[in-house]
From TrEMBL:
<dbReference type="InterPro" id="IPR014719">
    <property type="entry name" value="Ribosomal_bL12_C/ClpS-like"/>
</dbReference>
<feature type="region of interest" description="Disordered">
    <location>
        <begin position="45"/>
        <end position="64"/>
    </location>
</feature>
<feature type="domain" description="Large ribosomal subunit protein bL12 C-terminal">
    <location>
        <begin position="80"/>
        <end position="108"/>
    </location>
</feature>
<protein>
    <submittedName>
        <fullName>Ribosomal protein L7/L12</fullName>
    </submittedName>
</protein>
<keyword id="KW-0689">Ribosomal protein</keyword>
<keyword id="KW-0687">Ribonucleoprotein</keyword>
<dbReference type="InterPro" id="IPR013823">
    <property type="entry name" value="Ribosomal_bL12_C"/>
</dbReference>
<keyword id="KW-0472">Membrane</keyword>
<dbReference type="GO" id="GO:0005840">
    <property type="term" value="C:ribosome"/>
</dbReference>
<dbReference type="Pfam" id="PF00542">
    <property type="entry name" value="Ribosomal_L12"/>
</dbReference>
<keyword id="KW-1133">Transmembrane helix</keyword>
<feature type="transmembrane region" description="Helical">
    <location>
        <begin position="6"/>
        <end position="23"/>
    </location>
</feature>
<keyword id="KW-0812">Transmembrane</keyword>
Length: 111
């Protein structure tokens, strides 16, 4: 059976396109969280109020708590070995500095 080369090229291009679409869809889903969106939505920096002293206090010197959904997300990221992403989530959710966010993530990691 003879199949012209342009037909084979067209079939190959279609198969590559379908494969690219399948791989693109699978990358969108986070295997840790499924198809869910992040539990927090950080406000734009211009909308943030000025940080007060208790918000920037290091762990152990002030009341620094996370919302339950953010804390669950951070714990899930820590257990998945994605500590840097957990620090980013805490930093965005609490508007604390990088060191304070890292300290909070390490405190959650210790238990």
């Amino acid at each position: 059976m003879f199949v012209p080369i342009p037909v084979l090229v067209a079939i190959g291009a279609i198969l590559l396109l379908l494969l690219a679409l399948v791989l693109r869809r699978s990358r969108r889903r986070d295997p840790l969280l499924g198809a869910q969106q992040f539990a927090y939505r950080p406000a734009a920096p211009r909308d943030w109020p000025q940080a007060t002293a208790p918000e920037r206090a290091p762990i152990g010197e002030g009341e620094t708590t996370l919302a339950p959904e953010v804390e669950a997300q951070v714990i899930a990221l820590i257990s998945a070995g994605r500590k840097i992403e957990a620090i980013k989530v805490v930093k965005d959710a609490t508007r604390m500095g990088l060191k304070d966010s890292k300290d909070l993530v390490e405190a959650l990691e210790r238990g």
